[in-house]
Amino acid sequence: MEPQDVNPSLEANLKIIDLAQCVRQCSWSTRRGCKISALNWCLSLCLAGGADCCSLRLVAFHLGLQGKFTASKNAVCKRLAKGGEKLLESLLAKALTLKVAPSPILALESFPRVLLQDSTCPALPKALSEDFPGSANQSGSAATMRIQAYFEMKHGVFANFKLASFRDNDQGSTLEALEVAGKGDLLIRDLGYFALEAFREYIDKGVHLLSRLQLSSKLFDPDTGEEIDLLARLRSRGSIDGEVLAGGRSKVKMRLVAVPVPEKVANERRRKLRAKR
Questions:
Q1: Alpha carbon separation from 176 to 161, 212, 233 (Å, rounded)
Q2: Residue 162 to residue 251: CA distance in whole angstroms
Q3: Which H/E stretch holds residue 191?
Q4: 219: which residues sit within 8 A by CB, 6+ positions away?
Q5: Which residues, listed in sequence order, are joined to residue 141 by a DSSP beta bridge?
Q6: Share of the chain residues as helix, strand and coil, in percent rounded to the nearest 5
């Protein structure tokens, strides 16, 4: 089977993202006779990244298949330092921009930056388990890296990356975004980072937060101080949009928004809840 027959959809997606433009923006060599083309480089990294455990040796293997030459892991390492890393970052940023912001979002114009934070955990060769310890069993510890990424949504660029161990979970990283987010910025994260005391620090520094509600959190009326029965209030009003005090001890003043979702979405959420139970 020819290498180009293996990944037609992947190659097509790279063309949609406009690989040529990303190459021009990065310090990638386009001189004639260069064995590692930008297209083969990206295809090889994507294919290797989809394996159970990615390594420089695996990337070199795919490069050899794509370009029909013998590639070494040292060549991959050198290419990463010579524009290879920046090219991949640029491609990923463009792909995310197409996915999350296909058109301007007027509601976000008042924020200087809109930061999306999330993490991913790729498996690594077991030889790296001392530096990046993962889950452990009778056979020892696996090697797993956790990558904390900050994507700036309005300008379509990455604001920061942080490499850590799998055991450094999102909850423990909830305050680290203060090193990236500044006054006036909007920070959007999922429930893995939910920590009311940390939220207070963001609010004090002028950083706006958007998060789903941890349903175990107690809510109080800011005027009367009485605890809010969220389910009862939603059943009587249908929706909520107003200030509350969140947390039994924290009492962090926040805006709570709760609106009905379409029945199709509600049914899917019920299905997931039943499966989790």
A1: 11, 19, 35
A2: 31
A3: none
A4: 227, 228, 230, 244, 245, 246, 256
A5: 136
A6: 45, 20, 35
The letter for the amino acid at 6 is V
pLDDT tens digits for range 236-260: 999 999 999 999 888 999 999 999 9
Please tell me whether residue 216 adopts helix, strand or coil conformation.
Answer: coil
pLDDT in tens, 83-132: 888 888 888 888 888 776 545 567 788 899 999 999 999 888 888 888 99
What whole-number distance in Å separates Cα of residue 209 and Cα of residue 4? 45
Retrieve residue 154's tokens.
Answer: 């309005």
Q: Which helix (H) or strand (E) holds 164?
A: strand 157-165
Q: Output 189-192 pairs: Cβ under 8 A, ≥24 positions apart.
A: 189/116, 189/117, 189/118, 190/118, 192/119
Q: Which two tokens stand for residue 140?
A: 């020892």
58-78 as b/e, with b when 16 or more CB fall inside 10 Å?
Answer: bbbbbbbbbbeeebeeebbee
Distance from C-alpha of 164 to C-alpha of 131, rounded to nearest angstrom? 9
Polymer length in residues for the chain: 277
* DSSP state for residue 229 in the 8-state scheme: -
Report pTM.
0.80
